[in-house]
Write a structure and sequence with these properties.
Immunoglobulin-like, 5-stranded antiparallel β-sheet, 16 strands
Length: 320
């Protein structure tokens, strides 16, 4: 009887640990360090704000900026951002710090319908994500040969497997990191943006709606610390199943987790924006943002190509 009680206790403890791990609560800080800009023109800085949905709730927001600003959102995907403005002929550095308390859950397939507008949006090409382009044809032929049947479900899985098996995760030289499908097809290596640009291009070319999401990784193996850079991932849509999450670049880095990353996004990330070729202002209509994770700067209404110094950090909080 004592043995049975002990076994039951262990089982209950394990089940509770798994359940607790499915939701995380952490504090995430996004800091833009002081930058110097020409003082004769107005300066605008656009900073992405976290997505709020059933997968990610923002429980608390604290922020400080050296110049006034306002919260806005872009029209296509509803991405929220904070626009800081320094008027013309004002001399002074611009810096900001945002801190959010986030509750993030493990993401699996989410049932739901897809409007015709959304369907068309997530089947359309982007500047670096072609649809139906001849450069994709040889890869599509290999995917068609390896899939179990011609269903959308089997095709999506074959696309994922082909990419994990044939694209290497590495950051060598220049050209990677732009989410460039043409680069991924020719060089067969890159970071998460290149992996997922290729997945989206192939999926859309097969008539499968797919959307690009980007944010930051939040480590699970330590209670706090700095975060060095962004991470991105994808969800694709299947009728009757809804949006299916995948992370092909993490699967390539961790082959033992290939099955996990097809159909699951662990609670190890914070989602900041969705989509490519984003328009935040009049100026960005002619030069859309490739993706939106770091601050976007405009001086005198013209995009200013500068990498502001940034710092990102997190602190794990008690889920209770």
């Amino acid at each position: 009887m004592q043995k049975l009680s002990l076994i039951l206790a262990i089982v209950l403890f394990s089940a509770t640990a798994v359940a607790d791990h499915s939701t995380r609560k952490f504090e995430f800080s996004y800091r833009v360090l002081a930058g110097q800009f020409p003082n004769h023109d107005a300066v605008d800085i656009f900073i992405p704000l976290p997505v709020e949905n059933s997968d990610q709730q923002i429980l608390e927001t604290r922020f400080r900026t050296s110049m006034p600003g306002e919260e806005l959102s872009e029209a296509v995907h509803g991405n929220r951002y904070y626009q800081i403005r320094r008027p013309a002929n004002i001399n002074g550095p611009i810096d900001a710090e945002f801190t959010w308390v986030v509750e993030r859950r493990v993401v699996t397939a989410s049932a739901g319908t897809l409007s015709e507008e959304e369907r068309q949006r997530y089947l359309a090409p982007n500047l670096l994500v072609p649809v139906g382009h001849e450069i994709l044809a040889p890869i599509q032929a290999e995917i068609h040969a390896m899939r179990g049947d011609d269903s959308a479900s089997a095709t999506a899985r074959a696309i994922y497997d082909w990419i994990v098996d044939n694209v290497e995760y590495k950051k060598v030289g220049t050209g990677w990191g732009n989410g460039d499908t043409f680069w991924a097809c020719s060089e067969r290596y890159g970071n998460c943006t290149d992996f997922h640009a290729l997945f989206v291009a192939l999926a859309r070319s097969e008539g499968i709606p797919a959307r690009f999401e980007i944010g930051f990784p939040v480590p699970e193996d330590k209670p706090r610390g700095r975060i060095d850079g962004y991470h991105c991932w994808v969800q694709f849509y299947l009728p009757g199943q809804g949006w299916i999450p995948i992370d092909a670049s993490e699967a390539a880095k961790h082959p033992e987790k290939r099955e996990l990353f097809y159909g699951t996004h662990p609670a190890d990330r914070i989602h900041l924006s969705t989509g490519r070729d984003l328009v935040l202002s009049e100026a960005s209509k002619s030069q859309p943002l490739n993706y939106f994770i770091y601050p976007h700067v405009e001086v005198g209404g013209i995009p200013w190509k500068v990498d502001l110094e940034t710092e990102f950090s997190f602190r794990e909080l008690d889920p209770g």
